[in-house]
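Changelog-adjacent note: as of this version, every example in the card shows the full chain rather than a window. The one below runs 423 residues end to end.
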Amino acid sequence: MTTPQTSALVGEGSDNNYRFALTALTSLFFIWGFITCLNDILIPYLRLLFDLNYTQSMLIQFCFFGAYFIISIPAGLMVGKIGYKMGIVTGLLIAGAGCVLFYPAAMLEIYGLFLLALFILASGVTILQVAANPYVTRLGPEKTSSSRLTMTQAFNSLGTTVAPFFGAWLIFGGVADPEVSGVSKDTVSLPYFILAATLVLMAIVFVKLKLPEMGKVDQAAALPTKGGAWGQKHLVLGAIGIFVYVGAEVGIGSFLAIYLSQSDIGNMSSSQASHYISWYFGGAMVGRFIGAAVMQKFAGNRVLLFNASCAVALVAISMNSSGALAMWSLLFVGLCNSIMFPTIFSLALHNLKESTSQGSGILCLAIVGGAIVPLLQGVLADMTSVQFAFILPLLCYVYIAFYGFRGHRPGAFKRMLDEKETA
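Full-length structure tokens:
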């Protein structure tokens, strides 16, 4: 169904409006990538400040990505009522409020308050994702939606690439060896105050911008299938794909500084190892720029299958080696991660029509994998070793390869069940 607002964009001038909107949206992808990656610096910082074990450290990711599970469905309903643009403004303001809460958390040195601040911050980022991801897929032809989302996600990776440099310097305060010198409770406030000011400024800018009015759902319009988006099996399988992808990416990123600081892997301090997180996310950035071009000629599901298979091989190599080989094989997984999220996201939203906002909320709900998988990885690391715990991300990439091979097809799940009954 075409609304009066969107119909005005079809035809002369619509391409220019779309290009302007996409340019504005790239700033959002950058900022939430920056925010998310700061968690990987925050983990070793708070681990030193509060003397946490691996499982307790992963509560940082649990609270951050747990917000996706709690907020995504309400966010999808909200965005369906107020539209993509105002959803973005709301998300920016809530994320800014979470950043401000880092100041009392640092002054009082209360770990639980840090976790609450992260939850509020992540709630705002969740709303941003629910609004911005489907916005990008609808600003142009459906057949190139994977390519567009991959390109904008490349700027998300740019944020995750530069965040470790600024985060390590600001949070660790330039301390060469924080394990020896200790960490200051004051330094964590500065980067989040800067972020709070930036987010509020961006919210003001987006209120002023003239963007295509999209995302509001006509409540009287018929949904494409019974049960709306939940009735689309390729969406449900895609949600599982998002769950395991985010879990694998976050799990590896969360343990990188700890893993590389081990004597048999990188033999360096946590502060030095934190800088290598940029290599991991930088690979994703480079891969997304390449992937955006590649997927103009090759089907997104085939590229997804290839990248997931390479990730399985690289994680397996890192688990069964040591030194530079173990270190660099894991870092290069970032390159494989590049196109996974936007490709799974766009494949899962295919042909949802009026249920797109609901589908986006379901997919963002699945980002809770970033809370569950790293926490389980932390428990496994406490029970065995950090290196063996990478078996969880490896299994996640195996499922993503399946989704690229078969699970992305509409009705694929039903066909699988029918084939089993026939057999």
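Structural remarks: Residues 1-13, 174-178, 219-226 have pLDDT under 50 and may be disordered.
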